[in-house]
Amino acid sequence: MVEAGGCAGLKYKMGLVAETDQGDITVEQSGVKVFIDPASVGFLEGTTVDFVIGMEGSGFVFDNPQAKSNCSCGKSFG
User: Fold this and answer.
1) What are the pLDDT digits (tens) for 22-64?
2) pLDDT tens for residues 2-30?
3) How far apart are CA 16 and CA 35, in angstroms?
C-alpha cells in the first residue's frame, strides 16, 4: 500500500496477510501474489518491485515511473 509519510511525502508499506480485503487488486507473477488496496492502485501503476541483496543491506526496491522524487532510502516518493 501507499500511505502519507516518509521524507518525500508518500511511503510504500508492505506486510504479510493471510487473505485479501474486499476490493483488493491481486497481481501475480512467478507464483508470487501481491495484494494492493484500491486507494493505492493509482500511485502504484507501472511500479516494479524487486528484492536485492547488497553490501549495504538487503530489501525490496521499488521502481515507480510515476514518482517525481524519491528519498535516498528508496522507501519514500513524491
Assistant:
1) 999 999 999 989 999 999 999 999 999 999 998 888 988 889 9
2) 998 877 788 889 999 988 999 999 999 99
3) 10
Query: Identity (one letter) of the amino acid at 62?
Result: F
Residue whose C-alpha cell reads 528519498 in the numeric block: 71
The answer to whether residues 24 and 38 touch, using CB atoms and an 8 Å cutoff, is yes
- Using left for φ > 0, alpha for ψ between -120 and 50, and beta otherwise, residue 72 falls in alpha
CA–CA separation, 58 and 67 (whole Å): 22
What is the rounded CA–CA span in Å between residue 26 and residue 68?
Answer: 25
What predicted TM-score, i.e. pTM, was given to this entire model?
0.77
3-class state of residue 43 by DSSP: helix
